[in-house]
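Illustration 12: Lrp/AsnC family transcriptional regulator.
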Amino acid sequence: MITAIVLIQADNGRIPETAQAVADTEGVAEVYSCAGDVDLIALVRVRDHEQVAEVVTGRIDKVAGVQRTVTHIAFKSYSSADVEAGFSIGE
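Figure caption equivalent — predicted structure in token form:
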């Protein structure tokens, strides 16, 4: 499974509608509205890289209100349990 993090700049007056439309897009697992340099962050989870391109350029980029996207591909997932296990000395 491939996870892509998509940073989205959206029209200011349409952020809630844009976020919901992106969330309803096939291949999108979650969408977060946020403060900072971007308006929305979408997590895309698909089986292969071709599907990442299809979801981002074929679907998300076409959602009304989306101005610009930047996509990052995740290599590995870490959780607090993973980090703690890495420092465990066999207790």
